[in-house]
Fold:
Amino acid sequence: MEAIVIGGGIGGLAAALALHRLGHQVTVHERAASLEPVGAGLAVAPNALRALDRLGIGDHLRAHAGPDHPAAGLRRPSGRRLARVDYDAMAGVFGDRLVAVARSVLVDTLAAALPPGTVRTGSPAELLDHGTADRPAVVRTADGERTADLVVGADGIRSATRATLFPRHPGPRYSGFTTWRTLIPSPPRAPSAVGEIWGSGGLVGVVPLLGRQLYVYAAALAPAGSRGADGDELAELRRHFGTWCEPVPELLAAADPNRVLRHDVWEIADPLPVYHHGRVALLGDAAHAMSPFQGQGACQAIEDALVLATTLGTDPVTTLPAYTAARLSRTTAIVAGSRRVGALVARNTPAGVLVRDALLAVTGLLPQRLVLRQMARTYGWEAPVLVKSDRVAERG
Structure:
């Protein structure tokens, strides 16, 4: 089968690799001049690790992950602990803990697993015809029009492929949050605590990566399009969070202002009716962009990629409905769950913050098995097996 993937992000590369593992001919068209990952760090949850195991790269990610920590904590800006998640208990329940890597590590690993020439950068592509059972899909590329048995729309939150398939869909909606992300390559010292700090209308997270790097991220309520004075986003971070508990002030003092990324958070609040049309499938942010408060955006794109490949039969037109059936309800629920967590982060009145923190503190008193049970619907997902001919792709 000839497949064209529009978009060379994590979801597009994962889809290309899954299709390649099944013997399909795949070309990835990426508009950007290089595969520069958007963002800094990434927490890969157990559900996504299972999918990456099926693709044969899970162990490589584990080998390039940050140092193991026994737990991740949730604290107030004063430093008082509200709750924690025990990573050893998580591994006991789900078979893995959260694995933190630089986003570039995952992108590079996926790209390196594909045959040379599969990924074409600086190569925008546009869907012209979604195809039917009687005709192939048609995509316009820099080299002219190309036909394909399957087209995968992995072109992100502003997906032109989605707009072509569903012109009446309202598209993404602003969540009310803006986010900052940065990598600190040589922090003054290792943080005594990792995890998140929740304050009034915002949060800061600290995640150790390989080689003493720290991934620091933050979110705050802000009007869409807001930016720091003179483009200085590090100063904006310090203004919002500079008085919070350690290690936040120390890390912000060590951060490089040229390495601070800021992006507004947009989400697809109105679910698409389906994730396919004709010979075209949508995945990742193109299908179900979500806020980052459950850390599942990239993880769900990886799941999408594996499920798409495993449900695909010899005729995409008749088998793509199985992809939608497997993914629509699950991703819609996770989008809604991320929005609910975001609503808790958004509490910015003294009474609202007090009630939220009291609820979180009660959660922190619960046994870990009960805390982890709440995560089972997301983290407990079972990855389907890639089957090529009579051979099954084994774990790792």
Q: What stands out?
A: The mean pLDDT is 94.
